[in-house]
Predict the 3D structure of the following.
Amino acid sequence: MNALDAYFAETGENTHRLATKIGCSTSTITRPLRGERNPSVKLARKIEQHTGGRVSAQEFIAICLAAEAANTSSNEAA
């Protein structure tokens, strides 16, 4: 379980609630998390701030990059 999943499990929040609280659309968060778009540093910092540091900007970016790598390797295997 990554830091964002742990945060959601502990708080009962989800991507929609998080997006609403930081002032962006749900897809602004979910697309990077699925590896479909690069996360912005601004978004990562907002998530870190909103989660009180439980999900650092670096962790959020790492989660997104891992999803992107998984997508790339599954697309190459197909």
Summary: The first helix runs from residue 3 to 11. The mean pLDDT is 94. The two ends are 26 Å apart (CA to CA). Helices lie at 3-11, 15-22, 26-33, 41-50, 57-77.
